[in-house]
Fold this protein.
Amino acid sequence: MRSFVTGTVRDLPKSGIRRFFDIVADMKDVVSLGVGEPDFDTPWHISRTAIAALENGATHYTSNLGTPQLRREIANYLDRRFNARYDWRSEILVTVGVSEALDLVLRAICDPGDEVLYHEPCFVAYPAAVKLARAVPVSVPTYAEESFRLRVEELEKRVTPRTKALLLNFPCNPTGAVLCEENFRELADFAARRDLLLISDEVYSELDYTGAFRSFASMPEIRDRLVLLNGFSKSWAMTGFRLGYACGPREVIDAMMKIHQYGIMSAPTLSQAAGVRAMREGDADVARMREEYRRRRNFLVASLNGMGLETVMPDGAFYVFPSIKSTGLSSEEFALRLLNEHSVAAVPGCAFGECGEGYIRCSYATSMENLKTAVKRIGDFSAALARR
Ligand SMILES: Cc1ncc(COP(=O)(O)O)c(C=O)c1O
């Protein structure tokens, strides 16, 4: 019998993170620094709002775009936080997480063979999502020595007449990098000069430890070519609610809405009710979780540097990205041996693209107690490697 699966999907590698965590699932006493989701439970008043919505019969579809209440709340939030004005009626689409929004925007704007520029190391879904949109992912390397900033010269080398969009993610998964003001401006200028759509995935926008983060939505000059993606998963610890949104020019949002309408219908109704509550009354929760992440980040970076694993202090998100180059092991070997010999799970940097080789990603979305145990074990492993 012939294979019914398309060549594109057949050739798509499974996520390097998932592959690794299939191994972890069968092991005991592992301290995991692998997960990319908050260890906090969703603040109870937010969950309770979803329960109340259920009790009140909110079990039907909503408008394809999302409930007016949530779209209004998103517009208010963006105005309040980033001084960005979006018309809730036509410029905001509520989605099933940022994941769906990413898929929608790429499918809405890419014709077969169009190219999308993105920076590596990056979120594992980016190259796959571009390929699934029948477009061509074009990666641009970033380096620890430059705090993982994205250089316009590198973009200029790779831009072609087929380039349609520039996909950015700051604060960045896996490096935690946040753009400096200069880099922020030059990337926006580059998108305008090359007539590209700028897709900015700002899902970690609330996890900014230095106040350096600026949303591209705060730049009126690029408003007509910006699609902003954001959501509730990381900021309010709501991964399981599967709730995100896209904001942008009416034409693009309308095109995304068509795909969403036929493929998804509407984002979960109970989650949308919870989202309204999160944005309206969740600032203190965000601040509380951010302070705890900051404490963990400081501890982890100091500990890793102290044991000779060079680690850039990340300004955002909840990951650190230490170099393991001094050990002479590949990132996959390091992560596998750390897991098998010392029961600590971290993700090999190569899962995030070629230039992630030589690094591992450690998430500090886990308790301080777990971090202390992990640091002790990583220290033992590093010391054993140094004695060889
Ligand atoms: C950069 C980035 N974008 C998007 C997502 C997916 O977010 P959501 O849960 O909103 O689909 C993640 C999740 O890890 C992420 O790291």
